[in-house]
Please model this.
Amino acid sequence: MVLGHPQRVNGNFYNAASFVLDGSTVATYYKQCLPNYSVFDEKRYFTAGQEPCVVEFAGTHIGLTICEDIWEQGPVEKSVRAGARLVININASPFQIDMIDRAEQRLQVVSGRARTLGVPVVYVNQIGLQDELVFDGASFVVDARGELTQRGRYFEEQLLVAAFDLAPEPVPRKAGIESVASLDESAYRALVLGVRDYISKNGFAGGAVVGLSGGIDSALTLVVAADALGPDKITAVMMPSRYTADMSLEDARWEAEVLGVEYHIIPIEPMFKSFLQGLASIFKGLEHDTAEENLQARCRGTVLMAISNKFSKIVLTTGNKSEMAVGYATLYGDMAGGFAVIKDVPKTMVYRLARYRNSVGTVIPERVLVRPPSAELRAEQKDVDSLPDYEILDPILQRYIELDQGPQEIIAAGFDPDVVYRVASMVDRNEYKRRQAPPGVKITRRAFGRDRRYPITSGYRPQRTRSHS
Model:
C-alpha cells in the first residue's frame, strides 16, 4: 500500500507518502513541490522535502511522488536518477469546469514526464468532496512512451487493477479507458457528488430541505439533491407570498411530483403581515423598498431553518454565482442554510445544466427555462430590473473574478463601460455578504472564499479613464 499522510519530524511538518508492506512502513517520501496558489496553502503548513524515495518491490524499483511533484521539474527526475523504473504519483487534484482541458492537461504533463524519462507512471487521483472541493478521480496509467494504457471512471469510486509485466522493464498492460464527459455532464455530476458527500460525511442523516420557488435555481437545486440522496431524503417547501405567480405554484408542484419528493406549501403571508404590523410605527410614512422585500426572504429562511431543526435536515440554499457576485441575495433569507449547491454556478450555466438534466429525463418544466427570472418580492419584478441581462453579466463576471481582468481590459473586449464599472463595484462592495454565505461545491476556475480572497473593508474603487468617462 502507498498511503498519503502528514508527518512531523524534528519540528518540521511534511506532506508524506509511505510504502507499507506486511504491516510495516518500508519507506517514507516527503513532497518536494508545495503549491501555494488558488485553494492550496501548503507552504503555510508544510516543509518541502529534498530527497527522492525509491522502493524495491517484486524486483522493481518504484519511485514515490505526490501531486505537484509531477507538474514541476525535479522530483520525478531525481527518482529516476535514484533508480526508479516505475513512478507512482498520488494526487488530490480538484475538479473545475474546464475539466476537459484540465483532464487533457493532466494527461499531457504526466505523459510528457513518462516519455522524457522512459518510465511508466501510475497517476492516482482522489475521489469525492472535501468541504468545497470535489475531486473527480479518473486515475490513469501511462507507459514509458507516454501512451495512455488505462483510465478509471470520473466521479465514481472504483477499485482499478493495473497489471504490469515486470521483465525486463515494467510495462503496463492495456485495459479500459474511460472517456471524458461533456462539460455540462461533468459539472452536473460534480454537483451531485458534492452534495452526496457533504451531507453523508457530515452526518445529516435526515436528508435535506429545499425552498422551492417555481424558478430555475431552486428547480436545479432540488433535482441535484434528489439525484444525490434519493427523493425519499428530500423535502421541498413552497412558501408563496402575495407576489407569487400562479405558474410558480403550478411548476413547483409539478417538479416535486415528478421527482417524488415530500412536498409542502406553507404561505408566508401571515408571517409577513405580522412583521409589517410590528414595524409599522418605525416604518410609518416610508415607502416600501428592499426592507419589505427582504422581510419576505427572511420569513422563508426562518421557516426552512425551523424544519431543519425539527427534522434534522440540512437546508440547501439555491443562490447561483451570478447573484452571489453582485449581492443579489438576502442575508438571513435565501442565504440562510447549511450548504449552497450552486453558489459557484453562473446563471447562464444554471440553464445549461437544467437542459442537460432534462435531456436525461424531463424533471423541470420548459416554461421554467424560458420565463424571465424573478425573485417575486414585489409586483411585476424581474431580475433585469436590478441587473444587466445574464448573457452580458456572466461574461463580465468571469473576466473580473476568474481571469483577474480589470475594468479597462474588460471594456477593451467590447463591453459597455457603464455596465462594467457598475458590475465591478457591485462585486467589490458585496464581499461582506459572501463571507457569511454557507459553503458550496467549487466548480469554476476561481470560486468565492479561500480561492478569491478579497477584503471586506476596502477604500479602493476602480477609476474610470478619461476615454471611458
